[in-house]
Amino acid sequence: MPFAITPNTTAILGIMATSPPRRITRSSLARFAYTGTPHSARLEKSRNGDLASPDIEDIIPDTTPPPDSSARKRKRTTTVSVPGATRSRSTARSIKKEVDIKTENGPEAKIKVESEDVTTTLPTPAKQPKRQRKPARKTTDPSTGESSISPPTDWEEIYGVVRSMRGEGGAAANAPVDTMGCERLALKTASPRDQRFQTLVALMLSSQTKDTVNAVAMHRLQTELTPHAPGAEPGLNLENIIAVSPARLNELIYAVGFHNNKTKYLQQAAAICRDRYGGDIPDSIEGLVSLPGVGPKMAHLCLTAAWGRTEGIGVDVHVHRITNLWGWHGKSGSKNPEDTRAKLESWLPRENWHEINTLLVGLGQTICLPVGRRCGDCELGLRGLCRAAERKKVLEGRKLRESVAVDVKGETVVKVEDERIEEDEKELVVNEVVKQEEAVED
Known about the structure:
With 442 residues, the protein is mainly alpha-helical. The chain is built from 20 helices and four strands. α6 crosses α17 (355-366) and α8 (192-205) packs antiparallel against α14.
C-alpha cells in the first residue's frame, strides 16, 4: 500500500522546515554537567526521570582514588650537615630520605639520625703531573760561563732498581755473566802473569760470542793445550799459544764467532806481548788497544779485571742498547758503543764505571733481551721508569703480581708466587753448548 501524506503531516513538516535553529545556551547544557554523583546513582535518577540522560563520563568507570588530605600536606625535611665533609649528589639524597622517614617518629629518631656516621665522598685528587724525563744534556752556568753535562733526571732511581734486580733473589740475578764473564774465566791456580793473559784471551774470544760458548772454548784451551817444550806446564799461557799450530788453535776455538780471525789475532798478540812487554800483557789502554783484535771495550774491561784499574767504561752491545732504550742519550741516541762510552763518562760518577757493565750485561741476558724482552718481569717497566717498555706485557705483569697470594705468619709476610722456570731458555742454552761441542769434535 502506497504511503499517503496527510494534510497534518504536511503542516508539521512545513513548520520544521521554516522554524529557525534552536539557540544553544549554557543553561541548556546544564543537564550534561558532572555533579560528582556516583555512576549508579545517576543511572537511577535517569530511570526515575530525575535526570534526563546519563553523561558519557558516567558510562566510564571512575578509577581515581579518593582524595587524601594528608598527601597534600607539605613535608618538612631535616638535613644533616657535617662540617668539612664533601658529599656527592647521590649520597646527599640518601641521607635526606633517611632523615625524612625517621623524623616522622619523633625527636628521639631525629637524635639517632644525627648521631649516625655519614658516609662521605672524598674530593677527587688532583691529576698527577706527567713524569718529566730529560736525557743527559749540556748546561752552562750563567754566572761563570762554565759548561757541564747534567745527568738524566731519573738515572739514580733507574740505577737503584737495576741494582736490586741484579742482586740476590732479583728477577735478573744469576745471569751468565755472573759466572761465565770474561773476568771470571781465568784459572785461580795459574800464576798472576798467566791469569792476566787468560783474561785477555777470554776478552778477545768474547766478541760476537755468548758467554756460555766462550766459557766452553776457554775450558778447552786451559785443559787441552800441549806444553811448548818438554817439562813445561800445559794449558793456556803465552808460550803455549805461540807454539801451537794455527790449525790446532783454530780447532780448539772453533765454537766462537769469527774463529779464523781470532786464531791469527791470538798468536800475533801473544808475540807482541813477548817482544814488547816482557811476556806480560800491556798495563795501559793505549798498549792494550794496540794489540790486534782488541778494541776500547776490551781494553777497559781488561785493565780493570787484570790490573785492578778502572779508567773508563767498557761498553758492549747490551750497555749501548739498554741505555738508548732508557733515553739517556736524547732522542737521537748514541751512534755506536764508543759514542755511548763518551757520553756516559761525561756524567756518570766514576765509582759506577766498572759496575755498570756487569749490571746491564746481566740485565740484557735475563730480562731486557735483544729479542723478546720480558717487560712484564722488569721492575722498570712495572714502575713506569722505562719509556721503551711494551705496554701489553707490563699490564699482564701487573695483573700477575696482583694475583700473588700473601701468607701472613705472625709478623712475617711470605709471598707465595708461582715458580715460572724458564725451561725453554735453559734448554736452548744447553742444546747450543752441546751442539757447539759436537761440532768441534767432528
